[in-house]
Design a protein that fits this description.
- The protein has 400 residues and is an alpha/beta fold.
- Strand 4 and strand 5 form a beta hairpin.
- Helix 6 packs across helix 7.
Length: 400
């Protein structure tokens, strides 16, 4: 049987509002000593909000486990707000401790649940703590709304290019020259342009963030490692899905650039029977399937295609105008533009299928990927072998 103490501090940057680890620990140890609890186990969650549940607060989760297992004889904390900001959660904790005969003592609030008045005061203070947290959240939301209306950014981190020694224009120029995020990263590394943080040079993902910020019109074209503007440096990019979790497989090259491997990026966090497959093992089956393409000798233009494209382009312009006027924030803008981009990609894919009657496998990976993504919506893989099992055609009738 052991007494437990719980300490917590949110990620608050105002020094006047912070309660250091030393201050909280000294208070709980003095309370424990007064009750004769010398064997005190201290649990803590640092830079964690009290609104988070036990699944995201390891120290708090350990405290609940100690209570449920019957190991805890008493619970000490600096105040109710250190235990949590949710009235319902605090009420459950107090009720559970009371039912098990576990005393809860709080230093700043002078609460001792071994007394009737202490139990009543606990619930009152819990309501006040939640009220204060709600008011603070409302103030933050109101302040953010004013910033958005003024066209200001909500981020406290300056954009790349805001500092004098950072050249965001060079990043955009490299992207336009290379035509892809990965190609731009290579150019920037070759030219000695210094990124802000990475010691290993530029990554395509970093290039993607900067380019999309400077030129929102390319935001729908994708980004990330190996993904280009309208195409990719990998033949099967955005076509393969992990049969275990459904995540799109990511293409990478070995050091000499000769072998391509497609891997699931969630393989390290979720159990997978298999994580990756090399391109040369599955490409023959994909080539055999795509060679079954048989388009009609004459294809009529799909009615309404140009009008649909014009409407989508107009919708994209309206979204950008809403953002510049401060009516929507950056996240909402990106979400809306992504929807428009999907519809535009669908039209582009349809046009490519109509224009390309056959594939020349000597084309560059970028050219092949653009046509393959127009012909195929996706390729299903076997969970054990990662070999192709089925193909989803954009126009199923054209498969001979």
């Amino acid at each position: 049987m052991t007494a437990y103490a719980y300490l917590r501090k949110s990620s608050v940057r105002d020094p006047s509002r912070e309660l250091s680890h030393e201050v909280q620990e000294d208070a709980v140890r003095r309370m424990a000593a007064e009750r004769g609890d010398d064997d005190l186990v201290i649990l803590s969650d640092w830079d964690k909000s009290g609104r988070l549940g036990a699944d995201k607060r390891p120290g708090y989760r350990a405290l609940l486990e100690a209570i449920e297992s019957g190991r805890a004889t008493a619970i000490y904390s600096y105040s109710l707000s250190r235990l949590g900001r949710s009235l319902a959660e605090l009420a459950r904790l107090i009720d559970d401790c009371t039912a098990r005969g576990i005393v809860v003592k709080l230093y700043a609030d002078a609460v001792d649940t071994s007394t009737s008045s202490g139990k009543l005061l606990t619930h009152v203070l819990g309501s006040v703590a939640q009220f204060e947290a709600d008011v603070a959240s409302e103030r933050v939301r109101a302040a953010n709304a004013v910033k958005v209306a003024r066209g200001e950014t909500l981020s406290t981190t300056p954009f790349y290019g805001d500092d004098d020694d950072e050249d965001a224009g060079a990043v955009l120029d490299a992207f336009r020259e290379a035509g892809s995020f990965s190609g731009a990263a290579r150019l920037l590394n070759e030219r000695g342009v210094t990124p802000r943080t990475s010691r290993r040079g530029w990554w395509p993902s970093a290039v993607s963030l900067i380019v999309k910020r400077l030129d929102p019109t390319v935001g729908h074209r994708g980004g990330g490692r190996g993904v280009g503007a309208g195409g990719s440096d990998f033949i099967l990019a955005r076509l393969l899905r992990c049969p275990t979790c459904g995540t799109r497989l990511t293409g990478t090259r070995d050091r000499d650039g000769r072998r391509v491997r497609y891997s699931c990026r969630l393989g390290t966090s979720l159990p997978h029977e298999r994580l990756s497959v090399t391109e040369h093992l599955i490409l023959p089956a994909i080539r055999a399937e795509v060679d079954r393409l048989r388009t009609p000798d004459a294809v009529e233009t799909i009615a309404g295609g140009e009008a649909e494209r014009a409407e989508l382009e107009a919708r994209r312009e309206r979204i950008i105008d809403l953002f510049e006027a401060g009516h929507i924030d950056r996240a909402d803008r990106e979400r809306r533009l992504a929807v428009v981009a999907q519809d535009l990609s669908r039209i582009d894919a349809r046009d490519v299928v109509l224009a390309v009657p056959a594939i020349d496998w000597t084309w560059t990976p970028r050219q092949l990927n653009g046509v393959l993504r127009a012909l195929l919506e996706g390729i299903e893989l076997d969970v054990a072998t990662f070999r192709p099992t089925s193909f989803a055609w954009t126009v199923p009738e054209w498969r001979a």
